[in-house]
Design goal:
The complex is a heterodimer of chains A (113) and B (112). Chain A is an all-beta fold and 113 residues long. Chain A is built from no helices and 11 strands. Chain A is 0% helix and 50% strand. In chain A, strands 2, 4, 5, 6, 9, 10 and 11 form a 7-stranded mixed beta sheet that branches. In chain A, strand 5 and strand 6 form a beta hairpin. Chain A is globular. Chain B is an all-beta fold and 112 residues long. Classes of the chains: A mainly beta (113), B mainly beta (112).
Chain lengths: 113, 112
């Protein structure tokens, strides 16, 4: 089944404790991205990647890192999480870029205490 | 930066009534995509509009793209409980490397 998977689905952590949220897609998509969703603000893009080893900042990249060492994986790293990073995070992929249909993962709900 | 304004934020309707959400951009869009997010779920692609003045239908859903490619709407006729969720538009801006900018979403609530 074609899908985007994320792990973990739920995470509670404390300020400053490094964490990684994994994202994987099995559709051979070139493009992958990370969004955060907050009430009343819609989806805001954190980082995106057009291809392996190519990553770019989105609208809200501060406090986040990403890497794209393999085509299928695009982990999101929070080196020192803070409470304002409490949010719902979605990974998405598409065939080639922003202008194509985006396929979303199930989401990761993060609470930073 | 580029912005896509979406209104209203919420719409309460009785089952069987119609629902409409609107998206507006200050600059011309390359295309616009529409997504639906069910409560507790993730956004799911509904449709993409590319041409000026384009109108597309999916059963009870009608999507329109303005002549100037700056605005779009989604209209649902005779809402059903399965329509509950938040509807997002996402505008693609050619002049910004085809960056996708999302509206804030319109939450459709069916009154009991």
């Amino acid at each position: 089944e074609a899908q985007v998977t994320q792990n973990p689905r739920y995470l509670i952590t404390v300020t400053g404790k490094k964490l990684t949220v994994t994202c994987s897609q099995n559709m051979n998509h070139e493009y992958m991205s990370w969004y955060r969703q907050d009430p009343g603000l819609g989806l805001r893009q954190i980082y995106y990647s057009m291809n392996v080893e190519v990553t770019d900042k989105g609208d809200v990249p501060e406090g986040y890192k990403v890497s794209r060492k393999e085509k299928r994986n695009f982990p999101l790293i929070l080196e020192s999480p803070s409470p304002n990073q409490t949010s719902l995070y979605f990974c998405a992929s598409s065939l080639v870029g922003h202008q194509e249909t985006q396929y979303f993962g199930p989401g990761t709900r993060l609470l930073v205490l | 930066g580029q912005q896509v304004m979406q209104i209203p934020q919420y719409q309460h309707v009785q089952e069987g009534e119609d629902f409409t959400t609107y998206c507006n951009s200050s600059t011309t869009l390359s295309n616009i995509q529409w997504y639906k997010q069910r409560p507790g779920g993730h956004p799911v692609f509904l449709i993409q509009l590319v041409k000026s003045g384009e109108v597309k239908k999916q059963k009870r859903l009608t999507f329109q793209f303005g002549e100037a490619k700056k605005n779009s709407s989604l209209h649902i006729t005779a809402t059903q409980t399965t329509d509950v969720g938040t509807y997002f538009c996402a505008g693609c801006f050619k002049d910004s490397n085809y960056q996708l900018i999302w509206g804030a979403g319109t939450k459709l609530i069916i009154k009991p």
